[in-house]
Specification:
Blueprint lengths: L4 E5 L4 E7 L5 E8 H9 L5 E5 L4 H10 L3 E5 L1 H4 L9 H12 L12 H32 L9 H13 L7 H32 L4 H4 L15
Parallel strand pairs: 1-4, 4-5
Antiparallel strand pairs: 1-2, 2-3
Helix pairs in contact: 5-7, 6-7
Length: about 230
């Protein structure tokens, strides 16, 4: 009998598939390797497909839509109540299949490649900001061990650390000078990369803040504005 609804538990290598017919009876339980996914769904009659909105979900949603299927993405917390047994791939796929057919289910908009590219830049930039902050705190902690206190703020690190490294009268041992210099070089690298990504996003959105720029990308409109 024809499969009308399918739930896919996404993974890195092996995907679990659970499909039901128009009466809700399970007619398809299958594992597919990554390289089998496209060929399997390309030959399958168009149906409703549900997936959790996690890593690679938007990629597979676009690909399966290209085969004529109706694809819906759901937040994992909305799928969780439908898991009937202990959590595993088979149970997850069945829960996804059931959840996607619920009339009151809320779905995640599928992003196109341009939207995902902008979001990737945004996330990468935030990663460099986090790395820069962690490195600055590490430098501040290392110097504090020798009584050299640098005030909070990346600007104070940028101004004072190079001076302390070059100051021959400071109490830092040679190894600590080299370590502080290496840490500061790493921090500067993160700052430079963050700045390059910020410039790319400015050019892409035409604004210093992303609040107005997200209007070009409806799928990202709910993200909070980020100030540079």
């Amino acid at each position: 009998m024809k499969v009308t609804t399918i739930g896919i538990d996404l993974a890195k290598n092996v995907f679990q598939i659970h499909g039901v017919n128009e009466h809700g009876k399970a007619t398809l339980r299958k594992q597919l390797k990554r390289d089998q996914m496209a060929s399997f769904f390309a030959t399958l009659a168009p149906c409703l497909i549900g997936m959790e909105a996690c890593g690679s979900a938007h990629h597979w949603a676009r690909k399966l839509q290209g085969f004529g299927h109706k694809v819906r993405l759901m937040a994992p917390q909305f799928v969780k109540p439908y898991v009937k047994t202990n959590k595993n791939d088979v149970a997850d796929a069945e829960a996804i299949c059931e959840a996607v057919a619920r009339p009151n289910m809320r779905f995640v908009p599928i992003k196109n490649t341009e939207q995902q590219a902008v979001l990737s830049l945004h996330r990468a930039r935030q990663g460099f900001v986090t790395a820069r902050t962690a490195q600055a705190n590490q430098i501040r902690g290392l110097l504090a061990e020798f009584g050299l206190v640098v005030p909070q703020g990346i600007g104070n690190i940028a101004r004072q650390v190079p001076e302390l490294i070059e100051d021959a009268t400071n109490p830092l041992p040679g190894h600590s000078v080299c370590l502080s210099s290496d840490c500061w070089s790493t921090s500067k690298n993160s700052i430079a990369r963050r700045t390059r990504l910020a410039h790319r996003l400015r050019r892409g959105t035409g604004t210093v803040t992303l609040a107005a720029g997200w209007r070009k990308f409806p799928g990202l409109a709910r993200l909070p504005p980020v100030h540079w």
